[in-house]
Amino acid sequence: MLFHPMDIFIFIAFLISLWAQWKVSSNFNAWSEVPASSGLTGAEVARLILDRHGLHHVPVEVVPGRLSDHYDPISRTVRLSEPVFYGRSIASISVAAHEVGHAVQHQQGYAALVLRHRMFPVVNLASGVAPFLLLVGFLLHQFSLIGLGILFFSLAVAFQVITLPVEFNASARAKRFMLAEGIIAPNETRGVNKVLGAAALTYVAATLISVFELLKYVLIFTQGSNNEES
């Protein structure tokens, strides 16, 4: 499979992804140096917001690593990296509030999150099988295998697309929570936007790469099928 015109768009999206990852790291580092006026740690912010929403049963745990923060929907646990858990900066409390946003989404049955959770087992299988089917299909020129690979890969792409509103909504909730509870002052929203906006951009870039790859496979499949028929 030689160069395809769609590879240009994939390469551009890849560059955007690299830039987004750099922005996440640089913004987190910069705003980690800016203390939050509330003086609360990320763990304290997470606990406060969870309790305000009646989520007393959702624990907040510290995990090793940097930017390894996440919400585990299976065990219903908010896990924060050490810099976020113990940090009292704008960056720390922003990330903590964002992860709590996912816990609140789960509690309230946010539609995109529910769909994402239901899709996960199928997508987990599909994303593992798709590359194998596509590789074998292209090597053997078996368009039936390529078509099946595209079908499985499209499920993985759909999962990434659905992830976008989940992440944007969690960030919007985080900002509302912190302002409503007085965790941040209005003049601190710029830092929150910088930290969470950069993180959201990484999801957008990853989705763009997958969408362009899917379009590329669809175009190759369509052209190959037309050539076989003619």
UniProtKB/TrEMBL annotation:
Signal peptide: none
Spans through the membrane: 6-22, 122-140, 146-168, 195-220
InterPro entries listed in its UniProt record: Zn_peptidase_2
One Pfam family, short name: Zn_peptidase_2
Keyword annotations: Membrane, Transmembrane, Transmembrane helix
Name listed for the protein in its UniProt record: Peptidase
The organism of origin for this protein: Geobacillus icigianus
Lineage: Bacteria, Bacillati, Bacillota, Bacilli, Bacillales
